[in-house]
């Protein structure tokens, strides 16, 4: 078995026969702009470098072991600090013993920073075969405990404890001095620290409360609320006459809970919810065909969605506009 060299793939395959569309990879070049990271061949952009490495490929084909053609991340700039050439790759600058931020920090404002305690694997947690080590720059995949844990032949993890640094065309890690120009060469920079692999981390009983994006719209007889959440394990929605509660449990001990007070009353028995792949869709059955000025109670309403062809611009649904006796339209 050999490792595929396509960007974004990296899977091992049998060189005697790779099937068409078996490899999922990125055909473009890495793009780093204003803190966002992605690939020129697809639209998705992320902020975290680890998330960038996890972006699924947008191109399908056969696996290969050919060296990828050089694709610059950005326009190369001449770096005056070039000092030597090692293994055919230019190395820039002298070894750095402190971060760039520290050089601009007045002495009197420096504070002693306690060393960060790095996460270790809870070896009681089972690991799926093929799981990749989470430490940056390692790339080893799990085979079994005898191989990748304890004193196994591949138990040592060579990784970068720091963060990636891209500056004026050069690329490297904050934890070591080596800098290169090509992105492919950056990925090959050997880790500067040795330790144990991190395949699963520690099991945590503490839940993390997260916030989810939501949106809503209405018809004459219903209000539809969409709560966008992935990796759902359990979803509960309970209804009351003037509100509803949402409880979504997600993977990695994440949870979204919220109470929604409502602008108007609903039919509890006729209301329902549907769990979809990327969202939870809640359908609130109105007790009458009136327009809701907002989803939740709001004393500062400046716009009002109406229904019916006689209702003016922006109306939808029924033939006649309907509104409650205490609405701003009625009070005018």
Automatic annotation (TrEMBL):
It comes from the Eukaryota. Residues 209-296 form the CS domain. This is Chord-domain-containing protein. GO terms for molecular function: metal ion binding. Residues 105-114 have a biased composition (Basic and acidic residues). SUPFAM superfamilies: HSP20-like chaperones. Keywords: Metal-binding, Repeat, Zinc. Residues 96-123 are annotated as: Disordered. It holds the Pfam family CHORD.
């Amino acid at each position: 078995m050999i490792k595929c060299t396509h960007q974004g793939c990296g899977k091992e395959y049998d060189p005697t026969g790779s099937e068409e569309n078996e490899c999922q990879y990125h055909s473009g070049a890495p793009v780093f702009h204003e803190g966002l990271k992605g690939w020129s061949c697809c639209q998705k952009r992320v902020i975290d470098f680890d998330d960038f490495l996890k972006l699924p490929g947008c191109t399908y084909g056969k696996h290969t072991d050919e060296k990828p053609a050089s694709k610059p991340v950005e326009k190369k700039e001449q770096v005056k600090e070039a000092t030597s050439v090692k293994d055919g790759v230019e190395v820039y600058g002298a070894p750095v013993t402190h971060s760039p931020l520290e050089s601009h920090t007045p002495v009197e404002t420096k504070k002693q920073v306690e060393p960060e305690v790095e996460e270790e694997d809870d070896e009681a947690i089972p690991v799926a075969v093929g799981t990749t080590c989470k430490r940056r720059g390692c790339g080893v995949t799990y085979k079994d405990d005898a191989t990748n844990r304890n004193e196994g032949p591949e138990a040592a993890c060579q990784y970068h404890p720091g963060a990636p640094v891209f500056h004026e065309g050069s690329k490297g890690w904050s934890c070591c001095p080596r800098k290169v120009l090509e992105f492919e060469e950056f990925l090959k920079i050997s880790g500067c620290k040795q330790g144990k692999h991190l395949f699963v981390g520690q099991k945590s009983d503490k839940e993390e409360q997260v916030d989810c994006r939501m949106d809503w719209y209405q018809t004459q007889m219903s209000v539809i609320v969409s709560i966008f959440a992935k990796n759902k394990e359990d979803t509960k929605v309970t209804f009351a006459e003037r509100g509803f509660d949402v409880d979504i449990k997600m993977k990695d001990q994440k949870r979204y809970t919220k109470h929604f007070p409502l602008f108007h009353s609903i039919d509890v028995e006729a209301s329902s919810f549907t769990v979809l792949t990327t969202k939870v869709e809640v359908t609130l059955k109105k007790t009458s065909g009136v327009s809701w000025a907002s989803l939740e109670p709001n004393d500062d309403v400046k716009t009002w969605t109406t229904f019916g062809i006689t209702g003016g611009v922006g109306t939808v649904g029924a033939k006649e506009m309907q509104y409650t006796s205490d609405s701003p339209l009625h009070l005018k």
